[in-house]
Design goal:
By secondary structure, this protein is an alpha/beta fold. Helices cover 47% and strands 16% of the residues. The strands form two sheets. Strands 4, 5, 6, 7, 8, 9, 10 and 11 form an eight-stranded mixed β-sheet that branches. The structure holds S-adenosyl-L-homocysteine.
């Protein structure tokens, strides 16, 4: 039977609505980078600090009194703050209960992590690194990069002419940005690791943090577990810039060559920088460095396990976005099957995934 005029109208209204929904999705994706850039602008302007220094929720004039912006841009700041409140970075309310008065902007748990520039509860330096033009601009060439044969050049090298760890060596300001970013991440996540996952370090008397950056993670482990002899293996240019420490030793070296012996080898955010073949080489060197009698030595990996953790949409999306992000250095975020493959290929007999760090997990690999 032919549909009535009313049914026809209904069908086409539904059809139009779903087209409009699809357009909305496309616009939402297309403007995703504007969200990132709004966050970056709030960091550049130090808006979280301004609200914090004001002592609590602040009006625009109160924020403006503490940030460097041209007075003619105050109306634009209101629009920036609207994006950042709609997306949950700041709160906003009217100063009087009847809905009148000035708008007052406050911190949320999200923007609290952007207050100040150091300490375990501060991620500003990490966000500064992730949102820096050096790491953002390569993605404009992602489509072009797909035309090149794997593995060389990485998207980062195609854009800047250097692979990431040559860049940290030869480009002083990027090297500093990178080091500070990693220190901020380590301070944040390792504080949680030693409080929530202390068991991981039980029974260990020595630990080498392989590719441990400026030693921030190792320092936190050494302070939390004073009986553990802690050291860092890093490239010589990184060791040269590392802060002196009473209880953390630094070795300049190459993890692809050899790794100093210890009960435990710690690899935080290292293996995701490398392809499978390189990961197997690194893991084989880790295995050589730990005692071979079962039950004593282990490798502790802190990285993303795609699909591990909660099924929260933001978490799932962040894991796969990070995978695409790290593809710019020819690295990869791996799911359990992919981790298992490289762990067993390197000669380990077993592993355990402990998905307790939100987006990331701890993986223990046993010889
Ligand atoms: N584990 C640290 C740093 C991770 S970034 C953290 O999570 O904060 C990766 C680190 O690997 C960089 O500091 C880089 O200098 C180091 N690295 C790269 N190649 C290396 C090699 N061949 N030997 C030792 N370290 C290396």
């Amino acid at each position: 039977m032919a549909p009535s005029a009313e049914q026809n109208n209904h069908t086409s209204t539904d059809g139009q609505q779903s087209m409009l929904d699809a357009q909305l999705q496309l616009w939402h994706h297309t403007l995703g980078y504007v969200k990132s850039m709004a966050l970056k602008a709030s960091l550049d302007l130090r808006i979280p600090d301004a609200i914090d220094q004001h002592g609590g929720p602040a009006t625009l004039p109160q924020i403006v009194a503490k940030v460097a912006l041209h007075p003619s841009k105050i109306p634009c700041l209101r629009r920036l703050m609207r994006v950042l409140t709609v997306t949950g970075v700041f709160t906003v309310y009217h100063s009087s209960a009847d809905g009148g008065g000035d708008l007052v902007y406050g911190l949320t748990p999200v923007s609290r992590l952007m207050v100040g520039s150091s300490g375990p509860l501060n991620l500003s330096h990490f966000l500064n690194l992730m949102l820096d033009p050096m790491l953002v601009s390569p993605f404009l060439g992602l489509g072009d990069w797909f035309q090149h044969e794997m593995p060389d050049p990485s998207l980062l090298k195609m854009t800047h002419g250097w692979d990431v760890f040559d860049l940290t060596d030869h480009h002083a300001s990027f090297g500093k940005l990178f080091g500070n970013g990693m220190v901020a991440d380590s301070g944040f996540v390792m504080d949680i690791v030693v409080k929530e996952c202390g068991d991981v370090f039980q029974g260990i008397s020595s630990l080498v943090d392989v590719a441990g950056g400026l030693g921030a993670s190792t320092q936190i482990i050494a302070n939390a577990f004073p009986h553990v002899e802690c050291s860092v293996l890093e490239l010589s240019h990184v060791v040269a810039g590392a802060p002196a420490s009473k209880n953390v030793k630094f070795f300049a070296g190459d993890m692809f060559e050899s790794i100093p012996s210890a009960n435990a080898i710690f690899l935080k955010w290292v293996l995701h920088d490398w392809g499978d073949a390189d990961c197997v080489k690194i893991l084989k060197n880790c295995k050589k460095a730990i005692p071979c009698n079962k039950g004593v030595g282990k490798v502790i990996i802190l990285d993303i396990v795609v699909g591990a953790g909660s099924s929260d949409q933001n978490l799932v999306e962040t894991q796969v976005l990070f995978d695409l992000f790290i593809m710019c250095v020819n690295g990869a975020e791996r799911d359990e099957k992919e981790w298992k493959k490289i762990i067993f290929e390197a000669g380990f007999s077993d592993y355990k995934i402990i998905p307790v760090l939100g987006v990331r997990s701890i993986i223990e690999a046993y010889p």
